[in-house]
UniProtKB/TrEMBL annotation:
<feature type="signal peptide">
    <location>
        <begin position="1"/>
        <end position="26"/>
    </location>
</feature>
<dbReference type="InterPro" id="IPR007372">
    <property type="entry name" value="Lipid/polyisoprenoid-bd_YceI"/>
</dbReference>
<keyword id="KW-0732">Signal</keyword>
<protein>
    <submittedName>
        <fullName>YceI family protein</fullName>
    </submittedName>
</protein>
<dbReference type="Pfam" id="PF04264">
    <property type="entry name" value="YceI"/>
</dbReference>
<dbReference type="InterPro" id="IPR036761">
    <property type="entry name" value="TTHA0802/YceI-like_sf"/>
</dbReference>
<feature type="domain" description="Lipid/polyisoprenoid-binding YceI-like">
    <location>
        <begin position="28"/>
        <end position="192"/>
    </location>
</feature>
Length: 194
């Protein structure tokens, strides 16, 4: 009987300790703009691929590996689009495509994280572009966290990508010429723990 009480008491103490233990909290990270790149590419008459990137972006990430939850917000300055060719940049900024005068930013907010073990495998959320908000899932081709030796802080990041149907956002330029409606969007991101 005494053994039963001892076992019951030990189990009660273990349960109380587990309940009293601090809950896992999400860690907050700030996106490092020097190691974060937002690029896109689109087929050009099935002959070559047009590529460009956005030079200005900012955002935050909050995630909890133990709970397998998180949230990411990335704001992109669409006026900073850079193809490497000034004339093409001007056309990308025009009302034909990004209409940056009227819509100078795009934003991705993801709040559904899918993990493969302790690594983020994909993030689902919404992309707002040209004042239209649509669901988007970014799939990770790699993800890692490491202790940055220079910053003395944890840095997490990876390469994420998705394929957009641009006409869903109202970008129809060139469809009648045979330009692709599909755009590959790649977000290479590193974020520093705060």
């Amino acid at each position: 009987m005494r053994k039963t009480y001892s076992t019951l008491a030990a189990a009660s103490l273990a349960l109380a300790a587990a309940l009293a233990a601090p809950a896992a909290h999400a860690a907050d990270y700030a996106i490092d703009p020097t190691h974060t790149f937002v690029t896109f590419e689109i087929d050009h008459f099935a002959t070559s691929t047009n590529r460009a990137r956005f030079d200005k972006k900012e955002g935050t990430v909050s995630f909890d590996r133990a709970a397998k939850t998180g949230k990411v917000e990335i704001t992109i300055d669409t006026t900073s689009v850079n193809s490497g060719t000034p004339a093409f940049n001007k056309h990308l900024q025009s009302a034909d495509i990004l209409n940056t005068e009227k819509y100078p930013t795009a934003k991705f907010v993801g709040d559904k994280f899918v993990f493969n073990g302790d690594k983020v495998a994909e993030v689902s959320g919404n992309l707002t572009l040209l004042d239209k908000t649509l669901p988007v899932t970014l799939k990770a081709s790699k993800f890692n966290c490491y202790q940055n030796p220079m910053l003395k802080r944890e840095v997490c990041g990876g390469d994420f990508e998705t394929t957009l149907t641009r006409s869903q956002f109202g970008v129809n330029y060139g469809l009648n010429y045979g330009f692709s409606d599909s755009v590959r969007l790649v977000i290479q991101v590193e974020a520093v723990k705060q």
